[in-house]
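Supplementary material to the annual report.
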Amino acid sequence: MQIILVGINHKTAPVEVREKLACDTSLVTEALGGLKAEYPSGEFVLLSTCNRTECYAAVDKVAGPAPTELANWLAAFRNVAIESIKSYLDIKTSEDAVAHLFTVAASLDSMVIGESQITAQVKESYKLACQCGTTGKILNQLFHDAFRTTKDIVTNTSIASRRVSVAGVAVDLARQLFSNMKSAYVVVAGAGQMGELLVEHFQHENCKEVTVVNRSEQRRCQLVEKHQVSAKPWGSLDEEIVKANIIVGAASAHEGYLFDKDRIKSLMAQRRNRVLLIIDITVPRCFDPEIGRIENVYLYSIDDLAQVARDNIQLRQGDLEQAIHIIHRYVSDFMDWFLMRDVGPLVGRVKAAFEQIRDIEMDKFFVGPRQNAECKQQMDAAIGRIINKLCHCVINNIDLISKEHGPEEAEKFAENILTNANDIISEEKNKTQ
Amino acid sequence: MLQLVSLEKYLFLVIVAASLVSSGLGCIQITKGDARFGRLLAAFASLQMTLGAVLLIFRAVEIQAFPMTSVFESMLVLMVFIGIAFLFLSAFIHQVWFLSVMAWVLSALILLSAFVARPAAAPQAAAETPWVIAHALSMSLSGAMIIFAGAMSILFLWSRKQLKSKQFLTLFGKMPTLEKLQALNLLGLRLGFAAMTFGFVSGIGLAAVSSRELGMTPADWLADSKIVLIAVTWGLLLCILVLRRVFAFSGKVVAQATLLVCFLILFAFIGSELFCKSGHGLINQPAESSSSSQAL
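Predicted assembly:
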């Protein structure tokens, strides 16, 4: 058997090419069914996201399809001329294909390293393949190992823990200031796209209340309907600020700042100096930067947050080396298991040969007056046990050789024993004849 | 420290060594940015507390009295109280800065104890009254709580500075929230104030009962450097707690005032022993040259 990867991704192909091969769930199901019908002994998983369409297959080395054949099949399935995508194809086999899947699942091959969406998409694709019955022992092991690798990387590196979006950093900041986000009162001044994004993020944190204060009533109502937040007219902004823990400035200010230092100072006095986090995400800014000097007011502009997001991206890159090291370890373990699979049937054949030798020897012994001896059955069972124990010794040695010198050497060793056993059998058979 | 009898000296050396190791571990984990030695630090704190308690038991057996008659013994009790607070809170607060700073505070207290380490001395008769136990325990608890509040206020001020200067990455996941630090600071101050008030009352009780035995007049008490410092600390604590409510002081002001209180209490505990003459003690003279091991 061999493992094959055929596909295109954001690193090999532009979006115009990627969209030609992209499949939704129903198409993936159809493709998997088609592949299984065409190559019944093969195992297939098809991963299709906006950044990649990749087919992972475990097929027979001799009788199964070659990688190019699989690529042709996929192109034909999506009615795309193979010539138009040939130069963008990413084809990998055995160890390279395994390493690629582990890298993709751990989100190291994503546009934004560490984003967790791809891991969920790989899981979904595998689940779908399981439902379609196109996975088997090899791909099951391969994908489970991929998920284990991802878990290890997430646990032991900070690749997935650092926020890389402005809205995410804003939430992290709030969590650094307030112990209990569930009791935080958030006021979003303005209802632009970024404002809406922050509403979503703070709602996800289960904040006590999120209130949108906006000039346009229509937009305010839209947000209320979409996110089930409360809304207040623009005139009540000061009143809301007095109550709020977090203010998101998302309203445009055409002339000067919407809030200057004195205005916030007087509001802070009404708040009895409770800590106030202000996130100003508009350009031009609506909060005077001098406000940041007021005690217990923490003011951040979109640039401040973007800088942290950029730093986090860099830090994630720094963890890349450690993550790649983890992937290498898991790939090596998987390949050992995969190659040892070929030795498994050999061990079975060695045992069968040993049993054949036993039968020959038993037949030679129990002849003439001993033919009906009472001990025949007990002896047969005893020799069977001896063979099992000897086979166990052989398996242990194969394991040892596999670990120390690789699966190929272990296979050679098993083949040698089998050849020797077969020689003994033929010799005995010749003697008998 | 070298004046301690053999067994006490070795025990105390082990405590000092443990504190140095835990300080080092605290430094390493701060540089690495994660609380990788959190459990180890808790284990070292337990070791320091246990050995400190064993040392106190040796003292109690030797002087046949409650072992809080000298500053060294009081410092050990203070260390045990802080250790308990550390162990309790480390179950809930796992951030690297909190764990490391608490380990450093414990180490600092142990190193300060080394300066005032003296062999056991025969206590005065007044040391046997229950007033002494109440007074010494509550004052030590108060000191521990104020030192704890001081540690929290250092963390608060540093955290605030980083947030104001927009250096968030040094804080995310490594430092308790600003709100929590402020709350812990206040908790330390409140408990410290309550314990100190009780310590004052029991101290007045002790003075009333044992003034003659201690050879102190009311004027002596009022002029004693340690008592004056403690009284100033108590007054300052009261001011912080009351004015904070009235004028809605910011966390920064409270933290800075806490540091002042912390300095005052440390000076009252150790500074007055080293630099001022204080009659605030319950020791007559150095004990007979019997080692702790012999006493046991």
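Confidence is low (pLDDT under 50) at residues 285-296 of chain B.
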